[in-house]
Amino acid sequence: MLRILNISKSFDGIRAVNDFSFEWKAHKIVGLIGPNGAGKTSLFNIIIRFLSADLGQCFFKNKNVKQGISLIPQGSQVFGEMTVMENLEVASFILKDKKIKKKRFEEAFYRFLLLKERRKQSAGKLSGGEQQMLALRMALLQRPRLLLMDEPSLCLSPMFVK
Questions:
Q1: List of residues 6+ apart from 108 with CB closer than 8 A
Q2: Domain that holds residue 11
Q3: Are residues 36 and 109 in the same domain?
Q4: pTM (2 d.p.)
């Protein structure tokens, strides 16, 4: 489903990703582990096309596209000036069917009751862990075929991580 062939990326002459190749098949959970500065975030950004690789290619479902991929970036990147509900609405922009959209919002609030309680609150006023929960729900609203999570347990309580 995801194939990465000899990806390399440099920033100001410093190699962040060096000749990385990988193949991932559907229905598998894979972890990419490495120290800070090892290039994990750069690789994710190449996969979703936020960055272009200096060398190599990346294919998703044998196409050179990013449709069907969601990323939860490091540091719970939510729209802080918008409410929780507005963040979810932005994340659901690709959903045209109002019934499906409503069902996915209900599911989000069922799985994360705290978000339902705070749906009118500014996302910037949520704790770091609550923002991470919101970022996760925003990504899952789109029902991606591939979910990339950069530091997924950052700011979350150990109980929630379990």
A1: 88, 115, 137, 140, 141
A2: 2-66
A3: no
A4: 0.76
